[in-house]
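hey so u asked for the seq, here:
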Amino acid sequence: MRLDLKPLYIYNDELHKYSILIPSVSQIVNILLPKDYSQIDDNILKLAQNRGICIHNMIDVWIKNNFDDELIEFIDCEIKSHRELFKNFIKLYQETFKDIKFRHYETEKTLYSPLMCGTTDFIGITTDNEYIMCD
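ran it, structure tokens below
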């Protein structure tokens, strides 16, 4: 399958300004691998969305605070099972990256090209100048 992606543009005559609309990586993935949620109850979808947002926010705070494990109990999350999932993520992260040293890393980094754009949850540069991106 070949996607024929062409950026769209909008012109604002009042401001005499052009804006280019570039598809996100998520939009492209959804075209290639569409998901059908029609058989899933709206309440279940909302719970899953809230869980994802909560865990995402906890991971973001943890990374921005230099992976400080002592902060785990203070990161805001109302649901205990979400905190347990977060702790499981930390274990997985520590096992996966135990031998890797980062010289620089960022969260919520927007990346773009003329054909697509997106925001990665984590991007790091190792001491060996290798890029690692997690989403």
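The radius of gyration is 19 Å. The longest strand covers residues 102-112.
lmk if thats what u needed
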